[in-house]
Design a protein that fits this description.
Blueprint lengths: L2 H15 L3 H9 L5 H16 L1 H10 L10 H16 L4 H14 L6 H14 L8 H5 L3 H10 L3 H7 L7 E4 L6 H10 L4 E3 L5 E4 L16 E3 L6 H6 L6 E4 L6 H9 L3 E6 L2 H13 L5 E4 L14 E7 L14 H4 L2 H20 L1 E11 L8 H10 L3 E4 L12 E3 L9 E8 L3
Helix pairs in contact: 1-2, 1-3, 1-5, 1-6, 3-5, 4-5, 5-6, 5-7, 6-7, 9-10
Bound molecules: S-adenosylmethionine.
S-adenosylmethionine binds next to α13 and β6.
């Protein structure tokens, strides 16, 4: 299989068909057997997503007319080609000949010369990548830049942080060993790491395949970003409690809750396919939960038991805090999605609240950095909910802020938001 052709297919699926890269990439990776080839394929696809406006602009400067319809995939192939010339150590002659060959493999014989010619022209000149407007300068969609500028003085740093490659984080399974014990095992396996700020978190110096992690298959650790690991710690489940994880799939936070305390957990999600991953994660870690396919905005339809002591609401969101892990989000989301998501979050939050016991705790979480999904959402909830009060988190830099907004790259973590809400006792 020609690796550049596979990259063009994955990029095409994202940009033309709206498929997320985390689905499109593995589809193509499974056609390769060599680990290094898989890694290069990922690098090419992620790179194109990170620098799409500049790459697009560069290609268009060297084409007399844009490619349309079925030929669009050759445009995506050119993006892959240009990315190699600017951002990788692949020798230019190899990048060009392999990309031209990919055009043949994609069955666009008639365009091989065009691909070759465009890439050769660019290679001869290597013009500075355009920075003539903010979208080109920052490789970000205009609507999202506008929202970030309105919310944060430090928006350029946020944008810069979301272009960085994220570190790999592990969550120690404290039911098997202490974090220090596991760090010692990593060091013995020559995997450099350091403890994170939350109790179970370990940040690796370099990402590695999970097969190299001591005891991974037996559940000694899980892969989970340092920011996401705060969820279970902040909800702080206690032995014997009934806990709801209202939007649970793929189950990282559900498993962490079960590692922390002997609770009865309901792990619910509206997406049955994603729920399969919850059960797989529970099985690997030898943990038990009731896994339920259901709507968190209509709990009555699948639960007739008592109300919950604690609820984790890790709401569906724009995922703007995790663009460094999923750069395709920039091109898959649109401005109008934010209002729709905020409305969905509101419905789920209001409904889950009714299912919380008096005196109970609900942790509202998103991996967004947009106030409409976070602080504004929670402020509006507090204003319309007389029996709710905000429990300030010690981690918040500003104790008067509504919730704890973690920005991408802060202490090595993803962008995340947490607000802990307490329900009045009767
Ligand atoms: C941010 S993800 C959850 C991640 C998960 N908590 C974890 O740590 O692995 C949000 C989830 O909400 C689910 N979802 C969206 N709308 C829902 C609804 N109305 N009821 C329940 N789940 C919903 C999505 O399927 C998605 O899996």
């Amino acid at each position: 299989m020609n690796l550049r052709a596979l990259a063009a297919k994955a990029v095409f699926d994202v940009l033309e068909r709206g498929v997320s890269l985390s689905v499109a990439l593995p589809e193509q990776q499974k056609l390769l057997s060599d680990g290094k080839d898989k890694a290069l394929l990922a690098e090419l696809c992620y790179g194109v997503m990170r620098f799409l406006p500049q790459l697009d602009h560069c290609v268009s400067q060297f084409m007399s007319k844009p490619l349309k319809g079925k030929q669009r995939i050759v445009h995506q192939l050119l993006l892959v080609g240009v990315y190699q010339l600017y951002f990788t150590r692949v020798p230019a002659h190899a990048a060009i000949s392999e990309t031209a060959e990919a055009c043949r493999k994609l069955k666009f014989e008639g365009l091989v010369k065009v691909v070759n010619g465009v890439l050769r022209n660019i290679q001869r000149q290597i013009p500075a990548l355009a920075e003539s407007n903010d979208t080109l300068k920052y490789n970000y969609p205009g609507w999202l830049l506008k929202r970030l500028k309105a919310a944060y003085e430090q928006w350029p740093q946020i944008v810069e942080a979301s272009h960085q490659r994220p570190p790999m984080w592990l969550r120690n399974n404290r039911r098997q060993q202490s974090r220090d014990q596991y760090i010692a095992k990593l060091v013995a396996a020559e995997i450099n790491c350091r403890p994170g700020l939350s109790d179970d978190a370990i940040e690796l110096e370099f990402a590695t395949d999970v097969s190299r992690l001591p005891g991974f298959a037996e559940g000694a650790v899980s892969v989970q970003d340092g920011a996401a690991q705060w969820a279970a710690t902040l909800l702080a489940p206690q032995d014997g409690e009934l806990v709801l994880d209202a939007c649970a799939a793929p189950g990282g936070k559900s498993c962490h809750l079960l590692e922390l305390a002997d609770i009865q957990l309901l792990a619910v999600d509206a997406d049955s396919k994603r729920l399969e991953r919850v059960q797989q994660n529970l099985d690997r870690l030898a943990l038990n939960a009731k896994v339920i396919h259901g709507d968190a905005a209509n709990i009555d339809s699948w639960w007739s038991g008592e109300r919950f002591d604690r609820i984790l609401l890790d709401a569906p969101c724009s995922a703007t805090g995790v663009i460094r892990r999923h750069p395709d989000i920039k091109w898959l989301r649109k401005d109008s999605d934010i209002q729709e998501l905020a409305e969905l979050q509101k419905q789920i939050l209001d409904h889950c609240w009714q299912w919380l016991k008096p005196g109970g705790t609900l942790l509202y979480a998103t991996c967004s950095i947009l106030p409409d999904e976070n602080s504004n959402q929670v402020a509006a909830f507090l204003a319309r909910t007389p029996d709710a009060r905000l429990d300030a988190l010690p981690q918040q830099a500003d104790p008067l802020a509504i919730g704890w907004q973690i920005l991408p790259g802060q202490d090595g973590m993803d962008g995340f938001f947490y607000a802990r809400l307490k329900k009045a006792t009767l």
